[in-house]
Design brief:
Blueprint: E1 5-8, H1 12-23, E2 28-31, E3 46-47, E4 52-53, H2 54-67, E5 71-74, E6 77-85, E7 88-95, H3 110-114, E8 118-120, E9 130-132, E10 134-135, E11 147-148, H4 181-188, E12 201-207, E13 209-212, E14 216-218, E15 234-236, H5 237-244, E16 265-269, H6 287-301, E17 306-311, H7 321-330, E18 334-345, E19 352-358, E20 364-369, E21 371-374, E22 378-380, H8 384-391, E23 418-420, H9 430-446
Parallel strand pairs: 1-2, 1-13, 2-5, 13-23, 15-21, 16-17, 16-21, 17-18
Antiparallel strand pairs: 3-4, 6-7, 7-12, 8-9, 10-11, 14-22, 18-19, 19-20
The protein binds flavin-adenine dinucleotide.
């Protein structure tokens, strides 16, 4: 076995990179700073262009990684310091406390059932998704263990209903929590896995190369545009993805946030805010196919639902993508080449009226819909800036990691031995992420 390799980011790119490297007999540390590996793909419903179930494809790989003798997964873990000496990288990681003994937790969820307090889920909040203060990242999480919201400690969630029983003791003076229902529920299951006073742990590694696979984030809705901040029934495309998902907050029912009634007419606005001061200055490549996918699946749920896509450019760049767009049209999706300029709400019905310029006729028109989805695009991980400093590698002007040469060395960085793959390099789809992951893994193995 050669010297180990560190992969930062456990999305579909990091996972594929890890499996390829490990299958060559090289030890891999796969680090993710969230409580589970899986990345964005684990939160999707189906995947274009095949419309296969996203988690059904990814979960077996996540478990393969988990069970691979050459791979060590470190979740909730940040890369704090990296120094290169004698051709090797000395790495300091910090494993942030999950407040759980992961050896003892079996993922039975008794603690989650017992927890009295919930907060809106960071991704699903607008469509009603709530998360207990002790929770699992998602049902198929790897490792399949719970974690506790750090804010739950020291009584900071008292006003959210977390502390029941009226305890008045200053939490910082206490080593046990006599009122924590999660502790009691866990003990009742005979496990005693909750560790409310667990601290962060430093881990030091020495690796010969590093692959950065820190992925993308869904862009927030541009402030003040198309009524997202104002009207309940304007959501983003990741929120729509979660609405369609049987594992999402509505168990797959495509209902409106305002009244939880099924939406019968839904519009998508593509490139929401692109080119405007509030929006992204670039094309995110995948949104056209995401909208096509979401309309096809909506029609599969209920063919009577009317779906319209307001678009300006159309990107169908990948294999099978043009056929996928044709399939959406065959299903009855209306593509309207348009520039939407105003969205207003009927306060009684909460329906939305979209006013737009028809770019084919030049006429000003309007459409009333029950739900509006904004295709907001992909942005870099918000942790890239910090990681770039730690690794001493460069970011491009958009905040993605900069390739040493976009044509001839697209997976290399300015530091020998540090490579890139997947969304860390820019907006990308799953199959391209996997291709890059395999190539970056091979480069990491061959580094000398
Ligand atoms: C709404 C929506 C729908 C989509 N639908 C499709 C589809 O149908 N088909 C398709 O091909 N593509 C689709 N995509 C694109 C797809 O999600 C991406 O191509 C894919 O997730 C990229 O994988 P990745 O591993 O590079 O990044 P991610 O999936 O983003 O994973 C990155 C991982 O790195 C971790 N991380 C980030 N920063 C750090 C750090 N500093 N330290 C440690 N860990 C870190 C994150 O926690 C995450 O787990 C969709 C995207 C969106 C937003």
């Amino acid at each position: 076995m050669s010297e180990p390799i560190l992969i930062i980011g456990g999305g579909v790119a990091g996972i594929n990179c890890a499996l390829n490297v490990a299958n060559y007999g090289t030890k891999v540390y796969l680090v993710d700073d969230t409580p589970s590996i899986g990345g964005m793909m684990a939160r999707l419903d189906k995947t274009f262009p095949t419309n296969d179930c996203s988690i059904c494809i990814e979960a077996p790989l996540m478990y393969e990684v988990h069970n691979h003798s050459n791979i060590e997964i470190l979740t909730n873990t940040e890369v704090r310091r990296v120094r290169k000496t004698n051709g090797m990288f000395k790495v300091r990681l910090v494993k942030k406390a999950k407040f759980i003994d992961e050896e003892k937790c079996t993922g039975c969820r008794a603690c989650m059932d017992a927890c009295p307090a919930s907060l809106p889920d960071e991704m699903d909040g607008k469509i009603g998704g709530m998360r207990k203060l002790i929770s699992m990242a998602f049902p198929q999480a790897v490792p399949n263990k719970v974690y506790i919201n750090p804010d739950c400690r020291y009584g900071r969630m008292r006003n959210k209903g977390a502390c029941v029983g009226g305890c008045v003791v200053d939490c910082s003076q206490c080593r046990e929590c006599p009122i924590a229902l999660c502790v009691a529920a866990c003990k009742k299951e005979g496990k005693d896995a909750v560790r409310l006073w667990q601290s962060n742990k430093n881990i030091d590694l020495e690796v010969k190369s590093i692959v950065v696979a820190t992925g993308i984030k869904d862009a927030p809705a541009p402030p003040g545009l198309h009524g997202y901040d104002v009207y309940d029934n304007v959501i983003t495309n990741i929120q729509f993805e979660r609405l369609m998902n049987a594992g999402g907050p509505t168990t797959g029912r495509i209902v409106r946030p305002s009244d939880k009634k099924y939406a019968h007419k839904i519009a998508w606005i593509q490139c929401a805010g692109r080119g405007l001061a509030q929006g992204l200055p670039y094309c995110s490549k995948v949104c056209c196919m995401i909208a096509a996918k979401q309309t096809i699946i909506t029609k599969e749920h209920d063919s009577s639902v009317e779906t319209l896509i307001f678009y300006n450019d159309l990107k169908a760049y990948g294999k099978g993508f043009w056929g996928f767009y044709q399939k959406a049209k065959e299903k009855g999706v209306r593509y309207i080449k348009a520039r939407p300029y105003d969205v207003s709400e009927d306060p009684a019905t909460k329906n939305l009226t979209i006013r737009y310029e028809d770019l084919e006729t030049g006429e000003l028109k309007k459409e009333e819909v029950e739900l509006l989805v904004l295709s907001t695009g992909l942005i870099p991980s918000n942790r890239n800036q910090n990681l770039a400093k730690v690794l001493n590698i460069e970011l491009d002007h958009l905040g993605f990691f900069k390739e040493r040469d976009p044509l001839m060395a697209p997976l290399a960085t300015n530091v020998k031995g540090i490579y890139l793959c997947g969304g860390a390099t820019g907006p990308i789809d799953i199959s391209e992420s996997v291709v890059q992951a395999c190539a970056a893994g091979m480069k990491a193995i061959l580094t000398n």
